[in-house]
Design brief:
This protein is mostly helical. The protein has a domain at about 15-70. The protein is about 45% helix and about 5% strand. It contains four helices and two strands. The protein has a two-stranded antiparallel sheet with strand order 1-2. The longest helix has 14 residues, at about 55-70. It starts with 11 loop residues before the first strand and ends in a 7-residue tail after the last strand.
Length: about 90
Amino acid sequence: MKTDKHKKRPAYLDVRAVLDHFGGLGPLVELAARRGYCRFGYDAVKKWRQRGRIPSDRLVEMRELGARIGKPLDINSFVRGGNGKPI
């Protein structure tokens, strides 16, 4: 019988890597504001980083933003397996 310590961590989105794709927390917020994506501010993005989660509707906006600025956001490239390595 397996114990809790042998459970595999589920796949997850590497939120820090997503934010780094846009230059980090501050640059993402500034870029979003300049491009008309004012629905998320610095405090909200900071909470995403702390929680390790980005709301799905904001991910969609970030994909659109990335496409507009020539930095396409391929979500699959930021998904990590239970061991922290890309899937």
